[in-house]
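Name: GTPase
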Amino acid sequence: MYKIQVVKELHSSEGKMVLDVDISVKQGSFTSIVGKSGAGKTTILRMLAGLVKPDKGSIHSGEEIWFDSNTRKNKIPQDRSIGFVFQDFALFPNMSVLENLKCVQSEKDERQIQELLSLTGLTGLAACRPEALSGGQKQRLAIARALVRKPKLLILDEPFSAIDQDTRLRLQQEILRIHKLYNLTTILVSHELADVLRLSDHVIEIGNGKILRQGRTDLFFFNEGKTDQFRMTGQIVDLFFESEEYYANVIAGNMLIKVKVDDTSFNIGDIVHLALNDFNPTIKRINTT
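Structure predicted for GTPase:
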Protein backbone atom coordinates (compact mmCIF):
# COMPACT_ATOMS: atom_id res chain seq x y z
CA MET A 1 0.00 0.00 0.00
CA TYR A 2 1.21 3.48 -0.92
CA LYS A 3 0.03 6.25 1.43
CA ILE A 4 0.33 9.87 0.35
CA GLN A 5 -0.74 12.37 3.01
CA VAL A 6 0.70 15.71 1.94
CA VAL A 7 0.15 19.45 1.89
CA LYS A 8 1.81 21.70 -0.70
CA GLU A 9 1.19 25.35 -1.51
CA LEU A 10 1.09 25.89 -5.27
CA HIS A 11 1.19 29.08 -7.31
CA SER A 12 -0.22 29.55 -10.80
CA SER A 13 -1.59 32.26 -13.07
CA GLU A 14 -4.89 31.92 -11.18
CA GLY A 15 -3.22 32.58 -7.83
CA LYS A 16 -2.38 30.50 -4.76
CA MET A 17 -3.80 27.04 -4.18
CA VAL A 18 -3.15 24.61 -1.34
CA LEU A 19 -2.87 20.98 -2.38
CA ASP A 20 -4.06 18.89 0.58
CA VAL A 21 -4.68 15.19 -0.15
CA ASP A 22 -4.79 11.84 1.59
CA ILE A 23 -4.43 9.06 -0.99
CA SER A 24 -4.06 5.30 -0.63
CA VAL A 25 -3.01 3.16 -3.59
CA LYS A 26 -3.20 -0.62 -3.30
CA GLN A 27 -0.24 -2.78 -4.29
CA GLY A 28 -0.77 -4.20 -7.78
CA SER A 29 -3.56 -1.78 -8.68
CA PHE A 30 -3.82 0.46 -11.75
CA THR A 31 -4.96 3.82 -10.38
CA SER A 32 -5.79 6.92 -12.43
CA ILE A 33 -5.81 10.49 -11.16
CA VAL A 34 -8.12 12.80 -13.10
CA GLY A 35 -9.12 16.44 -12.87
CA LYS A 36 -8.88 19.78 -14.63
CA SER A 37 -5.56 21.37 -15.56
CA GLY A 38 -3.95 22.99 -12.54
CA ALA A 39 -5.75 20.76 -10.04
CA GLY A 40 -2.46 19.38 -8.69
CA LYS A 41 -2.33 15.97 -10.39
CA THR A 42 1.23 16.13 -11.73
CA THR A 43 2.47 17.69 -8.47
CA ILE A 44 1.19 14.63 -6.61
CA LEU A 45 3.18 12.36 -8.93
CA ARG A 46 6.33 14.45 -8.57
CA MET A 47 6.07 14.49 -4.77
CA LEU A 48 5.61 10.71 -4.77
CA ALA A 49 8.73 10.36 -6.95
CA GLY A 50 10.78 12.69 -4.74
CA LEU A 51 11.10 15.39 -7.40
CA VAL A 52 9.05 17.93 -5.42
CA LYS A 53 9.16 18.29 -1.64
CA PRO A 54 5.83 18.59 0.21
CA ASP A 55 5.46 21.42 2.72
CA LYS A 56 4.30 18.89 5.30
CA GLY A 57 2.91 15.41 5.62
CA SER A 58 4.22 11.94 4.86
CA ILE A 59 4.61 9.41 2.04
CA HIS A 60 4.84 5.68 2.77
CA SER A 61 5.55 2.64 0.61
CA GLY A 62 4.26 -0.16 2.78
CA GLU A 63 6.24 0.08 6.02
CA GLU A 64 8.98 2.11 4.32
CA ILE A 65 8.98 5.88 4.91
CA TRP A 66 9.85 7.93 1.83
CA PHE A 67 8.99 11.32 3.29
CA ASP A 68 8.06 12.59 6.73
CA SER A 69 8.07 16.29 7.54
CA ASN A 70 8.08 15.66 11.30
CA THR A 71 11.31 13.63 11.25
CA ARG A 72 12.69 15.49 8.19
CA LYS A 73 13.16 12.20 6.38
CA ASN A 74 13.17 12.57 2.59
CA LYS A 75 14.46 9.75 0.42
CA ILE A 76 16.09 10.86 -2.82
CA PRO A 77 14.40 9.73 -6.08
CA GLN A 78 17.09 7.10 -6.75
CA ASP A 79 16.24 5.36 -3.48
CA ARG A 80 12.52 5.11 -4.26
CA SER A 81 11.51 2.10 -6.33
CA ILE A 82 9.76 4.17 -9.00
CA GLY A 83 9.78 4.33 -12.78
CA PHE A 84 8.55 7.69 -14.10
CA VAL A 85 7.32 8.27 -17.67
CA PHE A 86 7.19 12.02 -18.27
CA GLN A 87 4.75 13.76 -20.57
CA ASP A 88 7.58 15.06 -22.79
CA PHE A 89 9.40 11.67 -22.69
CA ALA A 90 12.59 13.26 -21.20
CA LEU A 91 14.87 11.21 -23.47
CA PHE A 92 18.54 12.02 -24.01
CA PRO A 93 18.65 13.34 -27.61
CA ASN A 94 22.37 12.72 -28.09
CA MET A 95 22.09 9.02 -27.15
CA SER A 96 20.79 6.06 -29.10
CA VAL A 97 17.83 3.97 -27.98
CA LEU A 98 20.26 1.43 -26.52
CA GLU A 99 22.31 4.10 -24.73
CA ASN A 100 19.17 5.70 -23.28
CA LEU A 101 18.49 2.39 -21.53
CA LYS A 102 22.04 1.53 -20.48
CA CYS A 103 22.75 4.92 -18.93
CA VAL A 104 20.15 4.41 -16.18
CA GLN A 105 21.21 0.87 -15.24
CA SER A 106 22.67 0.62 -11.75
CA GLU A 107 24.45 -2.62 -12.76
CA LYS A 108 25.28 -3.78 -16.27
CA ASP A 109 22.76 -6.37 -17.44
CA GLU A 110 22.73 -6.90 -21.21
CA ARG A 111 20.06 -9.57 -20.99
CA GLN A 112 17.63 -7.20 -19.31
CA ILE A 113 18.27 -4.50 -21.94
CA GLN A 114 17.55 -6.94 -24.77
CA GLU A 115 14.41 -8.14 -22.98
CA LEU A 116 13.08 -4.58 -22.67
CA LEU A 117 13.91 -3.78 -26.30
CA SER A 118 12.03 -6.88 -27.39
CA LEU A 119 9.12 -6.22 -25.02
CA THR A 120 8.61 -2.70 -26.40
CA GLY A 121 9.29 -3.57 -30.05
CA LEU A 122 12.45 -1.46 -30.29
CA THR A 123 15.09 -4.11 -31.04
CA GLY A 124 15.45 -3.00 -34.65
CA LEU A 125 15.79 0.65 -33.59
CA ALA A 126 18.46 0.17 -30.91
CA ALA A 127 21.04 2.25 -32.80
CA CYS A 128 18.65 5.13 -33.61
CA ARG A 129 18.53 8.42 -31.76
CA PRO A 130 15.20 9.79 -30.44
CA GLU A 131 14.90 12.30 -33.28
CA ALA A 132 14.49 9.38 -35.71
CA LEU A 133 11.62 7.83 -33.74
CA SER A 134 7.89 8.37 -34.09
CA GLY A 135 5.83 9.61 -31.14
CA GLY A 136 4.74 6.08 -30.27
CA GLN A 137 8.30 4.75 -30.47
CA LYS A 138 9.55 7.55 -28.21
CA GLN A 139 6.84 6.69 -25.72
CA ARG A 140 7.77 2.99 -25.77
CA LEU A 141 11.41 3.95 -25.19
CA ALA A 142 10.38 6.13 -22.24
CA ILE A 143 8.43 3.20 -20.78
CA ALA A 144 11.35 0.79 -21.33
CA ARG A 145 13.74 3.22 -19.64
CA ALA A 146 11.37 3.59 -16.67
CA LEU A 147 11.50 -0.21 -16.25
CA VAL A 148 15.29 -0.55 -16.36
CA ARG A 149 15.70 -0.10 -12.61
CA LYS A 150 13.03 -2.78 -11.97
CA PRO A 151 10.63 -0.48 -10.09
CA LYS A 152 7.69 -1.63 -8.03
CA LEU A 153 5.73 1.52 -8.90
CA LEU A 154 5.26 2.87 -12.45
CA ILE A 155 4.11 6.49 -12.84
CA LEU A 156 2.66 7.71 -16.15
CA ASP A 157 2.10 11.46 -16.61
CA GLU A 158 -0.14 12.06 -19.67
CA PRO A 159 1.65 9.32 -21.65
CA PHE A 160 -0.69 9.45 -24.67
CA SER A 161 -0.90 13.20 -25.24
CA ALA A 162 1.38 13.36 -28.31
CA ILE A 163 0.31 10.28 -30.29
CA ASP A 164 -2.47 9.38 -32.72
CA GLN A 165 -5.50 7.25 -31.87
CA ASP A 166 -4.26 3.96 -33.38
CA THR A 167 -0.90 4.26 -31.63
CA ARG A 168 -2.70 5.22 -28.41
CA LEU A 169 -4.75 2.01 -28.46
CA ARG A 170 -1.70 -0.18 -29.16
CA LEU A 171 0.31 1.50 -26.38
CA GLN A 172 -2.51 1.05 -23.91
CA GLN A 173 -2.50 -2.68 -24.62
CA GLU A 174 1.28 -2.79 -24.16
CA ILE A 175 1.12 -0.86 -20.88
CA LEU A 176 -1.52 -3.22 -19.50
CA ARG A 177 0.58 -6.20 -20.54
CA ILE A 178 3.68 -4.71 -18.85
CA HIS A 179 1.68 -3.83 -15.74
CA LYS A 180 0.59 -7.45 -15.35
CA LEU A 181 3.85 -9.05 -16.52
CA TYR A 182 5.99 -7.19 -13.97
CA ASN A 183 3.33 -7.18 -11.24
CA LEU A 184 3.55 -3.40 -11.01
CA THR A 185 1.53 -0.84 -9.15
CA THR A 186 0.74 1.82 -11.76
CA ILE A 187 -0.49 5.39 -11.36
CA LEU A 188 -1.72 7.26 -14.44
CA VAL A 189 -2.57 10.93 -14.90
CA SER A 190 -4.68 11.62 -17.98
CA HIS A 191 -7.19 14.17 -19.26
CA GLU A 192 -8.79 11.54 -21.48
CA LEU A 193 -11.55 9.58 -19.74
CA ALA A 194 -11.36 6.87 -22.42
CA ASP A 195 -7.73 6.17 -21.39
CA VAL A 196 -8.77 5.91 -17.75
CA LEU A 197 -11.63 3.54 -18.50
CA ARG A 198 -9.55 1.19 -20.63
CA LEU A 199 -6.65 0.95 -18.20
CA SER A 200 -7.50 1.59 -14.56
CA ASP A 201 -9.34 -0.27 -11.85
CA HIS A 202 -9.48 2.70 -9.43
CA VAL A 203 -10.01 6.43 -10.08
CA ILE A 204 -9.28 9.51 -7.96
CA GLU A 205 -10.67 12.89 -9.01
CA ILE A 206 -8.78 16.01 -7.88
CA GLY A 207 -10.17 19.55 -7.92
CA ASN A 208 -8.70 22.74 -6.47
CA GLY A 209 -6.13 20.74 -4.56
CA LYS A 210 -8.65 18.42 -2.89
CA ILE A 211 -9.98 14.93 -3.53
CA LEU A 212 -13.48 15.37 -4.95
CA ARG A 213 -14.35 11.67 -5.21
CA GLN A 214 -12.74 8.30 -5.74
CA GLY A 215 -13.71 4.70 -6.26
CA ARG A 216 -13.66 1.61 -8.43
CA THR A 217 -13.57 2.60 -12.09
CA ASP A 218 -16.80 0.89 -13.17
CA LEU A 219 -18.74 2.42 -10.27
CA PHE A 220 -17.04 5.82 -10.66
CA PHE A 221 -18.26 6.32 -14.24
CA PHE A 222 -21.02 3.79 -14.76
CA ASN A 223 -24.42 5.04 -15.92
CA GLU A 224 -27.17 2.65 -16.99
CA GLY A 225 -28.28 4.91 -19.82
CA LYS A 226 -30.62 7.37 -18.12
CA THR A 227 -30.20 10.83 -19.55
CA ASP A 228 -32.30 13.68 -20.84
CA GLN A 229 -30.26 13.78 -24.05
CA PHE A 230 -31.65 11.65 -26.86
CA ARG A 231 -28.61 11.55 -29.11
CA MET A 232 -24.89 12.14 -28.63
CA THR A 233 -21.50 11.04 -29.90
CA GLY A 234 -19.40 8.57 -27.94
CA GLN A 235 -16.44 6.23 -28.17
CA ILE A 236 -16.37 2.48 -27.58
CA VAL A 237 -13.91 1.69 -24.79
CA ASP A 238 -14.71 -1.98 -24.20
CA LEU A 239 -16.46 -4.91 -25.89
CA PHE A 240 -17.44 -8.03 -23.97
CA PHE A 241 -19.85 -10.94 -23.61
CA GLU A 242 -22.14 -11.13 -20.61
CA SER A 243 -24.76 -13.86 -20.10
CA GLU A 244 -24.23 -14.89 -23.74
CA GLU A 245 -25.08 -11.37 -24.95
CA TYR A 246 -22.61 -8.97 -26.64
CA TYR A 247 -22.15 -5.53 -25.07
CA ALA A 248 -20.17 -2.34 -25.61
CA ASN A 249 -19.15 0.20 -22.99
CA VAL A 250 -19.41 3.64 -24.57
CA ILE A 251 -18.04 6.81 -23.02
CA ALA A 252 -20.04 9.93 -23.83
CA GLY A 253 -19.22 13.11 -21.95
CA ASN A 254 -18.61 12.02 -18.35
CA MET A 255 -20.83 8.94 -18.61
CA LEU A 256 -19.99 5.32 -19.23
CA ILE A 257 -22.98 3.67 -20.88
CA LYS A 258 -23.43 -0.06 -21.31
CA VAL A 259 -25.07 -0.89 -24.65
CA LYS A 260 -26.24 -4.24 -25.99
CA VAL A 261 -25.04 -4.67 -29.59
CA ASP A 262 -25.93 -7.16 -32.30
CA ASP A 263 -23.12 -6.13 -34.66
CA THR A 264 -19.87 -7.92 -33.73
CA SER A 265 -17.87 -5.86 -36.24
CA PHE A 266 -17.55 -2.94 -33.81
CA ASN A 267 -14.01 -2.28 -32.51
CA ILE A 268 -12.62 -0.63 -29.40
CA GLY A 269 -11.95 3.00 -30.31
CA ASP A 270 -14.83 3.30 -32.79
CA ILE A 271 -16.64 6.64 -32.67
CA VAL A 272 -20.40 6.08 -32.63
CA HIS A 273 -23.73 7.87 -32.48
CA LEU A 274 -25.49 6.96 -29.24
CA ALA A 275 -29.29 7.11 -29.11
CA LEU A 276 -30.86 6.82 -25.69
CA ASN A 277 -34.44 5.70 -25.15
CA ASP A 278 -34.70 5.39 -21.37
CA PHE A 279 -33.24 1.95 -20.62
CA ASN A 280 -32.69 0.89 -24.26
CA PRO A 281 -29.57 2.68 -25.59
CA THR A 282 -28.41 1.89 -29.14
CA ILE A 283 -25.30 2.79 -31.11
CA LYS A 284 -24.58 3.37 -34.79
CA ARG A 285 -21.12 3.62 -36.30
CA ILE A 286 -20.14 7.01 -37.71
CA ASN A 287 -18.90 6.78 -41.29
CA THR A 288 -15.44 8.37 -41.20
CA THR A 289 -14.62 7.78 -44.90
